[in-house]
Amino acid sequence: MAPHDIRRPFKRAAISDQQKRRELSLLRQAQNRRDAQQQARCLASSILSLQSAAPESQPEQSDIEIETVPESEQESEAFSKDLDVRQASKLRGPEVRKWFARQLMLPEWMIDVPDRLAQDWYVFARPAGKRCFVVSSNGTTVSRQRNGSILHHFPSALPAGAKIRDGSGLAQSYCILDCIFHELDQTYYVIDMVCWNGYSLYDCTAEFRFYWLNSKLEESGACNAPSHYHKFRFSAVPVYNCESSGLYAAYTGVVPYAKDGLLFYNKHALYQTGNTPLALVWKDENCSQYVIDTDGKGEIPSQQQVVLELQDDRKLVTSDDPPVLFGCLDGDIIEKAGLHTGNLLRFAIGDGGLSFADGKLEKADLIYLGKSNRARAFADSYSKVLFQFMVRHSPLKIDDLLASINSANDQEKTPSDIEMRETEDALLGYYQMNCMQNAGDRCFFGIN
Question: Please, which of 143, 154, 363, 436 could form a disulfide with 355 given CB 3.0 to 4.6 Å?
């Protein structure tokens, strides 16, 4: 199967795996409402309580020694993504990385064009920088990266974010922002709002969250220049409806930060922790410096590299839920390298590449390279592997996205001659026979 056939061209009628998961995710979030207020409080308390052990003389240094825990502890099965605040505050090493990584909403990589892109999606240029949670509470503000380490500990103009003369606000007041710290201008660019002034936004749609983000952030004074009680400036990113003009503006428009691709958010999506197909990232060489993954030296390897997790049955899987199987590792390699269940392993994709049948991964030519960087929390996602594979062989281009939008608009605005003829025939049949019968089928394919 040709590489470009793994994505859904804008004219294809069949539903892709990623589109199917988008629909299931929307259905699931409507059926499974969580206690959002409790989750927000747990996250805010955990981020702040974890920093309490940090030395006062070094407030901006990481208080988590990621690489000092023994290997046996690193492979502990005691970790759970559902830990409460008391348990989370005791985590260390890789367990901290996993816990914090699971609190962020992580976009999948766009491997096909979503249905109703112009009607149901936002788009904005992603700032290049460090993804982090920013929490303000009890007169202080802390930003933590995905690995759990403190990025900054500082006063801010966010509600309850600084100890000022007239007090720091109500004790129960706190904010949680999903940000990217852009080092060049020392600014926190807010890409999502999880909680504001004690009010949880977990169960609010992206449409509502973005509205609050723009209005509340400006009102708070957090967008002002740095001052004694406000060390870093915050800024919202320009968000557009994903119509042709909006997509073009996000893609080519001038922004005060370096771009690292485009982010697409489904307007109806709640803030869902972990990987979600309702948020998508897309890149090309015109809007990102890093389209193809680089190695530790910052160079593009000759062969695509992937990181997979080793399971107890020697299977190699992605970080998805459920995980996607890429193959099995030879027992001799496991024994010689001293590998264990849960290890993250790096592989190169050989000349055989990735083979697909009916939209499903059938075979992967994997070459074992060794253990992954120990700072990593998870294996690669299936969508990332496919996106990187497509970039090297047959990338999804900006023209494909624009063509999808324009095609959908044409279909909505102007019925085809065939459609008009069918309508006329149907009306004629109604008056002649008082009977009209229609049938239609829909095909599904993807990874089970």
Answer: 363
Q: Would you state the pLDDT for residue 420?
A: 41
- Residue 90 tokens read as 């005791």
pLDDT (0 to 100) of residue 70: 35
- Indicate if the pLDDT at residue 425 is higher than 80: no
Q: DSSP for 104-140? A: SEEEEE--SPPTTHHHHEEEEEEESSEEEEEEEETTE
Q: Which strand (E) or helix (H) includes residue 181?
A: strand 174-182
Q: How far apart are CA 37 and CA 332, in angstroms?
A: 50
pLDDT for 337 = 93
Judge whether residue 9 has pLDDT over 70.
no
The pLDDT > 90 percentage for the chain reads 55
Rounded to the nearest integer, the mean pLDDT of the chain is 79
Sign of the Cα pseudo-torsion (300, 298, 319, 191, in order): negative
Q: Which residue has the tokens 């030879």?
A: 330
Residue 235, beta-bridge partner list = 189
pLDDT tens per residue across span 118-140: 999 999 999 999 999 999 988 99
SS (H, E, C) the chain: CCHHHHCCCCCCCCECHHHHHHHHHHHHHHHCCCCHHHHHHHHHHHHHHHHHHCCCCCCCCCCCCCCCCCHHHHCCCCCCCCCCHHHHCCCCHHHHHHHHHCCCEEEEECCCCCCCHHHHEEEEEEECCEEEEEEEECCEEEEEECCCCEEEEECCCCCCCCCCCCCCCCCCCEEEEEEEEECCCCEEEEEEEEEECCEECCCCCHHHHHHHHHHHHHHHCCCCCCECCECCEEEECCCEECCHHHHHHHHHCCCCCCEEEEEEEECCCCCCCEEEEEEEEECCCCCECCCCCCCCCCCCCCCCEEEEEECCCCEEECCCCCCCEEEECCHHHHHHHCCCCCCEEEEEEEEEEEEEECCEEEEEEEEEEEECCCCCCCCCCHHHHHHHHHHHHCCCCHHHHHHHHHHHHHHHHCCCHHHHHHHHHHHHHHHHHCCCCCCCCCCECCCC
pLDDT band at 444 (very low <50, low <70, confident <90, very high): very low
pLDDT attached to residue 180:
98
Taking residue 70's Cβ as centre, other Cβ atoms within 10 Å add up to 9
